[in-house]
């Protein structure tokens, strides 16, 4: 099959997707508004949850794009557009962050200057944990991610028409620069948005922990979307089970990686038993939080591990779809476990249900991004020199 | 140089015929060793001899012969142990993890790297066993065995987990290595002219007939072993990191230690593999099989893992400040600017700064510069363990318990001896076994792939 035959792939996704997307966002916005009216403090934490959900998926996907270029992988080239669509979350993050920045004082204990004054440890941390520097960091981090998102995807889209191999070369270089920057910025983002919720607590592995969840959830979105789109005939017919297998393996690897990092963090803090570290886990062991802590082991590790362990399962479309959705739920639970224990106020069932509207809106947003991206971009990077190799990829 | 991205790079350069591959790899085993080989061997044996004398002195007079003191109760013994175990990581990483990732370029280097793993773990074992003092009774406190006195090992100590982790790792690596060797033993059995060798190869090839069924079983068991070996690679250095990190000592207790140690192990292991392969490919004319592309790929891995290690250094430093804990902060300032600052800056420059040269493609592909950088990495990674161990210990919580550790000649002697052991085994290996997997290289040679011209098969 020659390169020119590949050009036919430009299909719009069904308009029903647009309806679903807008519906979910509508539910999310109404529910979210209700949540803010009912209990603004809890709503702010739930908003942060939805925001972190989007951020981790978006930047995880951006990392996966650059990983493909740097590693010289070819199997993922036929589905790179799916990864790019997922990464298109990143430019929106800066706008979505505004409500959080407006609720700074609700979320971040350290943002109260009078509290910092009376707290010896926070006073020492003030050169890092202060509002001005926080805003600067947020701006730099999101600007960098957005910049690299636009550069990488613009070159990829240009290649659809020009078929210029130089663009691949440029993207390889960009990716090689981006990956170390990503390591630094993602660590900063995870410390700023989540670790600093408990400003006294610290853990050197926290950035890696965020990274593992981020890439895992991005992979889950990508896997689900790839399988769905392939079944709907939107991706190339020569994409077969071997490609699924690679996605399944990656999911499996990152399930294990997350388990490894989570275990390392818990094990070392538990064993050393220093009160300055253990209080964070103790807060997640009190009241009903103990059930969520324990559930996390099963939901985030044991269940997806068992689903994806066998070789046939990694190629099975049905199991992959189920595992991806399951992992996304697990990731949400993980973020909930990371963020919500900091909220110390009273909660009702209604508050809890309304809090779910933020992740619902996030899912709607991802669906809409896929819909609108597919309108202006080929679903397959038809000009990529590695595409033929990628389509020929067999185990 | 412009690469055509629509084509995959050939793994084996030049169009070698299968017969040529056979002969090229089997040649060192058929020829008599030359003079240079004996010079090299006598050099490594001398190192080993120095080590033997130092070990004898240690055993006769006790471990008081070492520089260990109060407060530095752990020094060269653990430093060298972690160093060698780290080197032992590249082998199984290359053979198991790269196999699972279907990286074809691993075929040329896997066998050698696996052998180095086994030798490095043997070197590593010397140190903790020596440090137990009367090692002939070490079995009592290292291995749990049923006894009437209910005398049990301390199961809650990561040091005992090390015994299990490292010995399991060693056993699985050995089996993995041997399974990979079976088809090659059979090839050698079929081609050798010597009768004695034929008997030996026949025994070790376990009746291999190159039949379809043989290969089917082989592929399956190789895949399974790779699956087993992968978590083992990670677990070994994770547990080694626990030796330090489960304690409450500032500088040791930090949560990033497990992944950081694993990355460092891969880093140092790859550096050692590159160091040795540079010579092996030259001496045995294997430049077509262990190509410059393979070395470049390994240098990329070194660059990547070097930056991971650099990330961990930076994160440790940042969190030491961020924690607001004055003792934690003191330890890190002391590490970088205290009496052991020299060791710290050797570590940082060798592990983080020098590998940055690998950003440049020309340097990644230049043998002399590459050799220099990987040797720096080897040095740097040894110093990393030295910095972690000694700087965290030498200034205890009370200034009255501050001290300085200086290694003795015996300390150096045992270290030199471990290098002697390692390189002696490497030299013997090159003359007795195929240093590259004959069967695997044949499978990736040009023209061997079933779907070579594209399309489904």
Keyword list:
heterodimer; A: 395 residues; mainly alpha; 19 helices; 0% strand; B: 457 residues; Formate dehydrogenase/DMSO reductase fold; 70% helix
Can you characterise this structure?
Chain A has 395 residues and is an all-alpha fold. Chain A has one domain. Chain A contains 19 helices and no strands. In chain A, helix 2 (40-71) runs antiparallel to helix 3 and helix 14 runs antiparallel to helix 16 (317-339). Chain A starts with 14 loop residues before the first helix and ends with a helix. By secondary structure, chain B is mainly α. Chain B has one domain (18-142, 152-443): Formate dehydrogenase/DMSO reductase fold. Chain B is built from 16 helices and no strands. Chain B has helices spanning 18-30, 35-61, 76-100, 107-131, 138-142, 158-191, 195-204, 212-245, 257-283, 292-322, 326-337, 341-353, 361-364, 367-394, 409-432, 438-444. In chain B, helix 6 crosses helix 7 (195-204), helix 8 crosses helix 9 and helix 12 packs antiparallel against helix 14 (367-394). The A-B interface holds A 74, 120-122, 124-125, 128, 165, 168-169, 176, 180, 183-184, 187, 191, 200, 202-208, 249, 256, 260-261, 264-265, 267-269, 271-274, 276, 385-386, 388-389, 392, 394-395 and B 2-8, 100, 102, 231, 234, 238, 242, 245-248, 253-259, 307, 311-312, 315-316, 319, 322-325, 359, 451, 454-457.
